[in-house]
Specification:
about 290 residues; alpha+beta; Porin; 12-stranded antiparallel beta sheet; 5 helices; 12 strands
Length: about 290
């Protein structure tokens, strides 16, 4: 996506361009490829591009409030992705869309999304956890650099490259990935430069980051980590509910927990809070967590 000399604004602008799909025909879109990827498309990219495609097919003031996706095949990040949208329903308040993401003519993901015209109603929310503010925490990349001696060189290079999203963990695993811990994590996240004022851009970025750190929560009680050579992981499905307007270029706390793992699958839930404690989105995901000989 960028080289070591890219400015934060360039990193963010490139991410926005990546997630903004190109319209090829009615309900047919193309998502760009990521030139410096690792071989497999990041799931958050496919989810965000699919949401962007669905959003472009919805008319009026209706905005995305939920999506539910299944990953079927690993995507190839050397190829663009084609998105086919089906307009299942357009009502007075709600609209629903189905999206199929394809590469080489075969599906890699399907997704259903729902859109609603904004309205007022009963309201309550779960309180935000009491955690340190982002200013009191180190960036994830600094934790990686501090433990560089324990990380394979090729992995270290990938982990420390400039990124459009900054992550600050409340408790980092680097340096002791084999420690067994309760299945709970807290991460502050934000884009590294302003995103502008288009709310659709902020929802797309939210969809992108909602696939970060979530699956790893289910590995914490077992002392395993995705960086281990005998560990295989992949997202199987992903759900996101967008409750409120948000800004992805301001700090969001992503707090996650995993109530269950079994049968080589891990189930995870997450909540996004703003700095002032508003619950703006929720996520859930089940993924493959498989130990190999």
């Amino acid at each position: 996506m960028a080289d070591a000399n890219s400015t934060p604004q360039q990193l963010v602008d490139q991410l926005k361009a990546l997630l903004d799909v190109e319209e090829l025909d009615r309900d047919l879109y193309r998502g760009d490829k990521l030139p410096e990827g690792r071989g497999r498309v990041f799931g958050g990219q496919v989810i965000a591009q699919a949401l962007s495609a669905a959003t472009k097919s919805v008319e009026g003031e209706r905005i995305a409030h939920s999506l539910h996706a299944y990953f079927m095949r690993p995507g190839d990040d050397s190829l663009p992705i084609i998105y086919r949208v089906e307009r299942d329903f357009d009502g007075r308040s709600f609209a629903t869309r189905r999206v199929i993401a394809l590469q080489k003519g075969v599906p890699i993901l399907n997704m259903a999304a729902s859109f609603q015209t904004p309205e007022q109603g009963l309201a309550h929310q779960e309180e935000m956890p009491d955690v340190p503010p982002p200013e009191a925490l180190m960036a994830e990349v600094e934790h990686v650099r501090a433990n560089a001696a324990t990380i394979e060189p090729h992995l270290l290079s990938w982990l420390t490259r400039p990124r459009p999203i900054e992550i600050r963990p409340v408790a980092s695993r680097w340096g002791n990935v084999e420690a067994k811990r309760p299945p709970i994590q807290h991460y502050w996240m934000r884009a590294v430069a302003p995103l502008g004022d288009d709310p659709e851009v902020h929802r797309a970025i939210l969809a992108y980051v909602s696939d970060m750190t979530l699956l790893s929560t289910s590995t914490l009680p077992h002392g395993i980590d995705w960086s281990m050579p005998n560990f295989q992981s992949a997202s199987l499905d992903h759900s996101l509910w967008i409750h409120e307007d948000l800004r992805a270029d301001d700090w969001l706390l992503f707090t996650t927990n995993s109530p269950w793992t079994g049968h080589a699958r891990g189930f995870n839930r997450g909540s996004f809070y703003t700095r002032d404690g508003r619950l703006v989105a929720s996520a859930a995901q089940e993924g493959l967590i498989r130990l190999r000989p």
